[in-house]
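Much of what follows relies on a compact textual record of a protein's fold. A record is reproduced here so that you can trace the correspondence yourselves:

. . .
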Amino acid sequence: MLSRMRRRPLRTRLSVVVTALCAGAMAVTAFTWLFSGDPAAIVIVELAGLATVALASTVVVRRELRPLERAADTADAIAAGDFARRLTETGAARTTEVGRLAEALNGMLDQIRAALTARERSEDRMRQFVADASHELRTPLQSLRGYAELYQSGALPDRGSVDEAVDRMLSEIHRMTRLVESLLMLARFDEEDEADLDPVDLSRLVRDSCRDAAAVEPGRPLDVRVEPGVRVLGDEAQLRSLLANLLGNVRMHTPKGAPCTVSLSTSGEQVLVRVEDSGPGIPKESLAHVFDRFYRAGKGRSRAGGGSGLGLAIVAAIADLHHGLVELGTAPGRGTRVDVLLRALPEPTAMGSGNSG
């Protein structure tokens, strides 16, 4: 009975208690009037009943409002900045006003805490991104400044020295250009929720990308295994960039004569693009970070090799925009395998093939 009473709203419980107390006091007064008839006794009983009603009502109201007071104290602490506090000790049933208020506030606080945490992570990533970008750009800028100062001070005595300095300056300018283009691409991907997807002949795209890679590095053994007629919904420019970054990673981080295999295959509704090299592989401790921006795994993956540490980050971003997945397999000394999983575009159903004249 008591538990059922506690599940009722606060106003109902207080109304029932006060009504019962008043009814009891009136009943005692009525019995005194019927059986005693003494005016003094009736007045004493009536005053005693009123005092009992007042005292009992005060006790009941204070007890019923105690969870609300605890909720108010917790809310004050939360308003002061303690977002870890929750309204978990109100002692009120979930069906009561205070119970429902506590549940609603706890849900709202969880959402606020999640939003604040997400914002803090985003701000941390942005600060790290800006710091990394600044660091990456500082090195070529310092190199350009050094060569310019050498030329200005007359420290380049002949035409050969000047030509060498200009070649080095152009090399640094090209590296900065590639870095800025990669940064702009990642910034654009961060703003986009989804790519503009159109039917793309992925078989043609993979073959074209492999021909481009062979033209840049003709001495590398390149085994291309492309299933014909593979089509996906995608952004052709972005998919070209994905393949260019995968093949560029092979070129930058493996020996020139190390063989590379590029394959495209389908399995049901899934398309698999695989780029596998026979280079030095990636250290085990670096696997959790290879998709982080500006991360380089191992000594061989350095600025001197031309890498910016953005290649796999771009690959992962493009795959995500295409609702795809990137998987990595590697072992030190056994090469690296990068798999990109995409959804195949269903073949159009032939209409009217069974008609006869």
